[in-house]
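Reminder: ligand-aware prediction takes two inputs, not one.
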Amino acid sequence: MNMLKGGTIKLVGLLLVAVAMSAYGVSDKERVAIEERIQPAGKSCMEGDNSCGAAVASSGGAKSPEDIYNTNCMACHATGAAGAPKMGDTAAWSGRLAQGMDQLYANAINGFNGMPAKGLCMSCSDDEVKAVVDYIVESSK
Ligand code: HEC
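Here is what comes back for the chain with heme C:
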């Protein structure tokens, strides 16, 4: 019985080594192809190549409300940190919505208790902050 157990463990060990070896058995040519495929969008684009211009433009242009939310607001509003109303938490937002969108905008722009002015996105315009508030509210109804 004991011998059988030992043998089984060895067999499993050998199988793992074989799997690991085959995973690394990628030829240089394949490796280069894989590296090219996993390069970040835009990096492998040649200058003047229009086929990939869109991907490049989207990383440099105006920030979308979703981008700003992910960068500046999520830390608190996804977790409820510092008592922030969580995005998607209908109950937490319904009372706030009752005071009207203008008040929500103003509190987001100027700050309000634990809510820092503009959620600390100092490069955001007032309109950008308003658009993010719309985005959060739309996702929390
Ligand atoms: C440091 C944490 C933190 C960050 C970052 C943050 N918030 Fe808040 N936010 C809070 C807290 C805490 C409250 C609740 C304040 C209260 O009711 O006392 C709040 C409340 C709000 C409210 C409701 C205001 C009201 O009148 O009830 C809005 C709208 C809001 N945040 C938008 C944003 C937006 C947009 C961003 C990103 C640009 C952001 N917040 C980033 C912590 C944060």
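The helical segments are 2-24, 28-37, 53-60, 65-77, 90-97, 101-110, 126-138. The chain has a mean pLDDT of 80. We will return to this case in the review session.
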